Amino acid sequence: MGLLDEKLSRHIDALLHRYPVLTGIRQELVDAYMVMEEAYQNGRKLLIAGNGGSAADAEHIAGELMKRFQTPRPVSTEFAERLREIDREKGTALAENLECSLMAIPLVAHEALTTAYINDVDGLGVFAQQLFGYGREGDVFLGISTSGNSKNVLNATVVARASGIKVVGLTGADGGELAKVADVAVKVPETETYRIQELHLPVYHCWCLMLEDRFFGRDNNQA
Predict the structure, then answer these.
(1) What are the pLDDT digits (tens) for 136-167?
(2) Under CATH, domain 6-66+101-216 is a member of which superfamily?
(3) Whose CA is closest to 160, among 2, 26, 35, 21?
(4) Are 65 and 101 in contact (CB under 8 A)?
(5) For the residues of 129-186, what is the DSSP string, one character each?
(6) CB 46 within 8 A of CB 165
(7) pLDDT tens, position by position, 50-105
(8) Which residues lie below 8 Å from residue 201, measured CB to CB, with a gap of 6+?
(9) Global pTM?
(10) Where in the chain are the domains?
């Protein structure tokens, strides 16, 4: 994996200061971030899936990446001007309010598609089907499973690996099968589901902060 610069390292340092229990997985946290950074640097995207509370986490992550988290993300001057040229009134408002995104698709969010596939084909293959449809080589699949053994998430990893999509697993201490097949496995050191989920949130918040800082921070060019 690449090296993390000092500006981004401060986010990891702040996370570990608040949650010292995560100190033992620092390198995995960095490695997972680097996989996502590389994908976005190359114009790719993040696809996210999980069940129950982890499904909510998938939507939460997309919400942080698709609009500002902490840092303003104005559109480029060129795009703002194109908006105004098309419609002076609406375009001016859009130019002021649109925010740049890091493309993230929560695979848990498409009710009509997912329920149709579950009903017509295979409930445990629904994430795999979405990943096959939405995913492209160079993307990243973030599979969230407290046990690491969620069958629908694991099925999606098979499609990911066949498609040239890197897999980041976010699990509990055991890691399960997901940790064995992921390119990077981040195993937070808890074994009870709710405690695992309590640590997942600050982990992915840290990644979102780092990605935003990398692509939209003051020292970077407009994305």
Answers:
(1) 999 999 999 999 999 999 999 999 999 999 99
(2) Glucose-6-phosphate isomerase like protein; domain 1 (3.40.50.10490)
(3) 35
(4) yes
(5) HHHHHH--TT-EEEEE-SSS--HHHHHHHHHHHHTT-EEEEEE-SS-HHHHHH-SEEE
(6) no
(7) 999 999 999 999 999 999 999 999 999 999 999 999 999 999 999 999 999 999 99
(8) 57, 60
(9) 0.93
(10) 6-66+101-216, 72-100
